[in-house]
Design goal:
There is one protein chain. This protein is of the alpha/beta class. It has three domains: 96 residues, 2-Layer Sandwich (Nucleotidyltransferase, domain 5), CATH 3.30.420.40; 101 residues, no CATH class; 86 residues, no CATH class. 54% of the residues lie in helices and 12% in strands. The protein has twelve helices and seven strands. It has a five-stranded mixed β-sheet with strand order 3-2-1-4-5, sandwiched between helices. α5 runs antiparallel to α7 and α7 packs across α9. The termini are far apart. 23% of the residues are buried.
Length: 311
């Protein structure tokens, strides 16, 4: 076999397509392998660059390739799509991955460690439980509203809803009352599970040095610090704070041409959960500062001076 410099892998559950090429891009082999055969094939292959799309299971296989002595890199799928020739299939995808990886200006995704993926799954699990609970609470509000009963929104006002359902003098039908009681039991169960995960997140955020340092910043708590540590690449990869803001998607969408700069709304192309939590944390700090005088020479104090001068 000719010397292989780079291997593109199109990942799947059972059938993997690999495309090997030389340094000049000339193809050496194209193969379809099962999971077991793929691992054995890469074990026997001399050290090379293995490139995959950043999809489900990609970080696991990247770590496996590193353990086998290869260099592993991940590419965002949107950067691979322009290199797919004509018809889209697994073999063409593997070839397109190689083509994309050979571009000198290509951006790669950092390979996550097992600890980072563990934190990400814990964070996602809590978010899913919170969303499910919010859906049930909204359903409960809708059922009661059909019979003229309203209550303030928010999980902290569940006591008011429970009082309405428990009141036998109300004209709520028996079947609806039983359904609402079942929803309340589901909401209570989700609350217990959410609180349990919250305690787990608090404990995990105290273990890593990065999360402990992040929590020293105003507006950053255990959940936000865990999200940054789990989803963000190493902070050393950002040259300045504005680069991190660009990674979050807090930059205007550009449609510039002909030397004319046209900036639109925020692109929002970054990590949504981290961006959302950062905005919530910042708003909590601003809201807290409006209730008392902000520290002198702080950003909020300067903004207040500017607002007074504008009036």
């Amino acid at each position: 076999m000719e010397e292989v410099t780079i291997v593109g892998v199109d990942l799947a559950k059972n059938a993997f397509h690999v495309h090997g090429a030389r340094a000049d891009g000339h193809p050496v082999f194209r193969r379809k392998l099962s999971r077991l055969r793929f691992h054995r094939f890469m074990m026997d292959l001399p050290r090379c660059l293995v490139v995959m799309e950043a999809c489900g299971g990609a970080h696991h296989w990247a770590r496996e390739m590193i353990r086998l002595g290869h260099e592993a890199k991940l590419i965002a799928p949107r950067y691979v799509k322009p290199f797919v020739k004509r018809h889209k299939n697994d073999a063409n995808d593997a070839e397109a991955i190689v083509e994309a990886a050979t571009r000198p200006t290509m951006r790669f995704v950092e390979v996550k460690s097992e600890a980072q993926q563990e934190r990400a799954i814990v964070f996602r699990a809590r978010e899913q439980l919170v969303n499910q609970r919010s859906e049930l609470v909204n359903t409960l509000h809708a059922h009661l509203y059909e019979f003229g009963y309203i209550a303030p929104y928010g999980i902290h006002h569940m006591g008011r809803i429970e009082e309405i359902i428990a009141d036998e003098t109300t004209d709520i039908p028996t079947a609806v009352r039983e359904i609402c009681r079942g929803l309340i039991e589901q909401i209570a169960d989700l609350t217990v599970r959410t609180d349990k995960l919250k305690k787990h997140i608090d404990a995990m955020s105290r273990e890593a040095e990065t999360t402990r340092r992040l929590q020293t910043m105003p507006g950053v708590g255990p959940i936000l610090s865990l999200a940054i540590e789990a989803f963000a690449p190493p902070m050393e990869s950002f040259r300045r704070g504005r680069d991190f803001a660009a990674w979050l998607g807090l930059v205007p969408l550009q449609k510039s041409t002909g030397g004319k700069q046209r900036l639109g709304k925020m692109s929002k192309m970054g990590q949504r959960d981290t961006r959302r939590l950062l905005i919530i944390g910042a708003m909590s700090v601003v809201y807290g500062a409006t209730r008392k005088r902000p520290p002198e020479r702080s950003w909020l104090a300067r903004m207040g001076v500017v607002a007074e001068l504008s009036l």
